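Lab notebook, bench 4. Still working through the backlog of constructs that have no structural model yet. Next entry is a single chain of 250 residues. Request: give me the structure tokens for it.
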Amino acid sequence: MGHDTPQQKSTAARLAARVQLTSIDQSRVPSVTDMVYDALYHRIVELQLRPGTKMSEAEVASQLGVSRQPVRDAFYRLSQQGFLWIRPQRATTVTAISIAAVLEARFIRTALEMEVLRAAILNITEDGLARIEANLAAQKIAMDDGDRTRFHELDDALHEILCDIAGHPKVWTIIKDNKAHMDRARYLSLEKGSQQTFDDHCAIVDAIKARDTSAASALMRTHLERIGHVIHDIRAEHSEYFENEDERGA
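Model written out:
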């Protein structure tokens, strides 16, 4: 392969920074597959790659300046998360958002994060509180700037930090692997602003600081279940992103 273009170098640098944003283990250098996955994950979640978009290993490899193998591996990982539909002898396409999958993801996430929260409150230290407060400060800046992408990333980062403080960092991987459809619905929900989500986070953190497990749990449950109350409204406003009934059986 030839030398990377300035655009490819810029893309690689930006992707590396994004991987670092939410990574708890900063000592681990992201692989090429990680970087390709991260690039495609964000493009799909941010709806730059809309449902139905055809994906080519060769085209993505060329765009990112990498070989086809890490792209193939990233495609497989994204398909396992529900973002891509890979069919033999047919084009790989970006999946539409499934309401049933959103609600299932909400159930899985709520079950896991309620236990994470209890453990985090038991394990919280001043250092842990400082990490949470720094995240909230960054969220406030992103919200004030109207930076929906940055806010969404910091939202995920806060929940990942709680998993780490709880002593169960791998739980975040399980959550992330099961919330693909939910991520896009959440991103669409931020179109009308991030204030509600930010207020939820502040209230949860206040309860954590007070070591009030009961209040923190009630607030977290309300926060995580909120998507279920608005998902049908989101679908009504953005039907082009959502799966039609029996679409997969076509």
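Notes after review: Strands lie at 54-55, 84-85, 92-94. The CA atoms of residues 1 and 105 lie 41 Å apart. Flag for follow-up if needed.
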